[in-house]
Amino acid sequence: MPNKEKLPVLYLITPCYNEEKVLPSTYSLFLxxxxxxxxxxxxxxxxxxxxxxDGSTDGTWDFICEISKxxxxxxxxxxxxxxxxxxALVAGLMEAKDRCDVTITLDCDGQxxxxxxxxMLKKYKEGNEVVYGVRNSRAGDGxxxxxxxxxxxxxxxxxxxxxxxxxxxxxxxxxxxxxAFADYKEVNIFLRGLFPLVGFKSTTIHYDQFERVxxxxxxxxxxxxxxxxxxxxxxxxKPIRIITGVGxxxxxxxxxxxxxxxxxxxxxxxxxxxxxxxxTLCFVSGIQLISLGIIGEYVGKTYMETKQRPRYIIxxxxxxx
Length: 321
Prior knowledge:
By secondary structure, this protein is of the alpha/beta class. It has helices at residues 23-39, 60-70, 85-96, 116-125, 143-158, 175-181, 191-198, 221-235, 238-266, 275-307; strands at 10-16, 48-53, 74-79, 102-105, 130-138, 167-174, 202-209, 314-317. Strands 7-5-6-4-1-2-3-8 form an 8-stranded mixed β-sheet, sandwiched between helices. The longest helix is centred in the C-terminal third of the chain and has 33 residues, at 275-307. The radius of gyration is 25 Å and the shape is elongated.
């Protein structure tokens, strides 16, 4: 349990996937900020930077091991294979929750303003258990990515999910919240929507997003779309209800069409034609396929949850357990 009368132990947690070009530039930013906070007595000297290697295939893990030997304030864990950004974050959070008072998750590419950590800690000491970092600007993101993101936040909130607009996993979470969060066992995980569900007193701070320090983003449009689908299907069943509503509407229109067909038939006004039939078949078939796809997404997620497979496996640590 965190003791806010004493200096809190902070863990900066950052997932890494094939970031050997970025880490030599950014790890010193994190380490220097940690040392600065320790020197100003904002946090305990037992605070750490925890790198989570998400199954990288380059020299990322070797570099983490090397810098951890040079400085005891740097630690690392390596997952047995690539498990994705969200699971890598969970691995870091669960690894740190019993060893610290508070965690802050951030990307390793330098896009998150490290100086926002000071304000997050200030809000924590004021009694907030969760502090969400909200982007003022999005340097490095193209127009399409920004537009997609804005649309997505509006969509997921309209479907019943509770997410913070323009928040992207740069957040402070206390160990108290993490102990409660540990009871959430689902595999289909979307942290931006789950932490609001956990509750506790929370607030937001704003920061400017920078461009990547080096290298290219590994977060493709496909991965971004996958995260969006996971977020919607893990937080809301409204898409299923929308399908039901569409089905009722189409059935109602079809019923009116049947009545109209009988009336025109007995009135002797039927005219053979394929256009109307083709349009009707295409429309109904399209609705059916979309509906089956959405239902299948939920069935697939349910299938994965029932297996109860681990979300991640830690293969190596730079320290002894």
